[in-house]
Structures are given as structure tokens and as C-alpha cells.
Amino acid sequence: MRAIGQESFGGPEVLRIVEVARPEPGPAEVLVRVHAAGVNPTDWWHRATGGLAGDVPIRLGWDVSGVIEAVGPGVTLFEPGDEVFGMPCQPRPAGTYAEYVVSPARHLVAKPAGLSHVEAAALPLAALTAWQALVDTADVRPGGRVLIHAAAGGVGHLAVQIAKARGAYVIGTARAAKHDFVRGLGADETIDYTEVDFASAVADIDVVLDTIGGDYGPRSLRTLRTGGIVVSLASPAEANLVTEARSLGLRSTFMITEADQTGMREIASLVASGLLRAEIAATMPLEQVAKAHEIGETGRTTGKIVLTVAD
After folding, report:
1. What is the separation of C-alpha 223 from the centre of its chain, rounded to a whole number of angstroms?
2. CB-based contacts of 121: which residues, under 8 Å, 6+ apart?
3. How far apart are CA 169 and CA 8, in angstroms?
4. What are phi and psi for residue 194, nearest 5 degrees?
């Protein structure tokens, strides 16, 4: 089968089409014929550094939507021909930039009817990240005030919708040109972070979702009400930030997204109810993966980039 591989760490140019043996599913695993694979910031971090994948050669890709080709011993949830989507093996790459991928059966769920493979492949990692941050970690409640940084980005635009589905009041930071898009997702307020200091513009926040890192964590603490929390996706919270938050009656934590069938079922339910959709910034064939990484690394995309693999 064709897959994307790399023999060295570096820029997008290290990504290559390679021919490898088609994998076979083991016990409690399924083989998925990949129709589409999402592209995420963690992809280019692993491409450049190895990250949690270890040394080269490595095969990238977490998000997948496709059709079950074969099932291994003990699988009871799926059978060949079922359409599925999910995020296998996180936090390590599953190698979904390929024509076929093996996944633990319980890392996938049925693809909602009417959702294309491209739309489905844009969801798993980013939507699970938003769900696990806002719901599992921060326990967003109806009426809670939520501040989402980079609200037009891959995680951010899904987080806005999930927070609204939970009944929260949502404020999103984004460039002015993207404010209409963010409000169209349901955001109650928008802030142009290039013109306004968000830390001075908002207050009494219950939950901050920090997808950026750097000084955003310390600045976000200034927006919280007592008992509030900053959930960081960008970098582990420094000890002094955690200490500062605790001294103020606040919380700060770093989160890594985990493979989660229960969360995926919640996401599929939101999609089926019309409460969650992925904005597709671009679709590209597998052969143009380097270009997809180049575009994604600009940090200026609205929504998600998706690689198309099978028709």
C-alpha cells in the first residue's frame, strides 16, 4: 500500500510517499481502508522533532475516516463494510497518512449518516481535545463563562460549538477578519487579539482554553473568577504558574488528548444533532501532504486541513 513516511526530522520536504506492506489486524483490532485523514499541529511537531513517536522512520497521522476492511479476533462492534471515524492510538501516531491503517476497535465509532469522510476526518483529534478540555477537565456548565483562544482554529472553532452546546457564554479571540465566522459558530463575543489586550477586556471567566502557550497562560489567569481554570494545550504549565494560580484560588493545568470512544460517541451525537460541524480549510490528495503541512504551519487557517486518500 501507499503511505507517507519520513527517514529524517525536518521541514515538510522530509515527507515522502513510500510503499509498505498492508498491515493485518490483531486481536481486538480492525483494518480500516482510509478515505480521509485529518492534519493537525501535532503532526508537524512530530515531523520536526519525533515527539512521542521516537526515532525515525516514523509514519504520521492520527485522524481517520474510512471503511472497515477486516476485523481481528474478538472484535464484536464492527464488521467489514462499516463506515467509521476516530483517533487511533493517541498520543502516539497511528500512521493514518496511508491507504490502510490498523486501529484498536474501541478507538473508533460509527460515522454519522450524511457526514462525508472529509468532514468526519476533520473531527476526531481536534474535537476530542476540545471535549476533554472543556467537559472532562473543566466541567463546563450552563451559564459558565468560557474564553477560547484562537477560536477560528482547528481546535478553537470546535471548542466554541461544544461550549455552546453545554450552555456556556463563549468569548473567542481571533483576528478581526474571522469574527463573523466565530460568531457564526455561536460565540457571544469576539476579541481581536492584535488590537486588544484580552486580559483587560474580559473578566469573571470560569474556563480559559489556551491553545497558544507562551504568556497566554499568565495573562489568562487575570481573566478568571475565583475557582476558575486555565486548561493549556500548548505546553506544560510551569510550576510558578500553577503556584500562582493556586495562591489566587484558581487552577492551571496542562492536558494531553487521549483516545476515547466515549468522547467520540458524544462528538458523533453532537454532529447528528446539528450542534457540531467542522470547517474545512482545504482538502488535498495524499501526495500533497508537504503542501498541507506548509499551509497548516502558517497558523492562519480557518478550521481543518484534510488529506483525501480513497474515493
Report:
1. 25
2. 35, 36, 37, 38, 63, 64, 65, 85, 306, 307
3. 45
4. -80, -15
CA–CA distance, 24 with 144 (Å, rounded to integer): 47
Q: What is the pLDDT along the chain (311 residues), one digit of tens a residue?
A: 999 999 999 999 999 999 999 999 999 999 999 999 999 999 999 999 988 888 999 999 999 999 999 999 999 999 999 999 999 988 888 999 999 999 999 999 999 999 999 999 999 999 999 999 999 999 999 999 999 999 999 999 999 999 999 999 999 999 999 999 999 999 999 999 999 999 999 999 999 999 998 899 999 999 999 999 999 998 776 667 888 899 999 999 999 999 999 999 999 999 999 999 999 999 999 999 999 999 999 988 899 999 999 86
Q: pTM of the predicted model, to two decimals?
A: 0.95
| Of 121, 119, 94, 117, the residue nearest 31 (C-alpha) | 94
Spatial neighbors of 99 by CB under 8 A, at least 6 apart, are 1, 2, 3, 22, 33, 34, 309, 310
C-alpha to C-alpha distance for 277 and 173, rounded to whole angstroms = 19
194-204 b/e (C-beta count within 10 Å ≥ 16 → b): eeeebbebbee
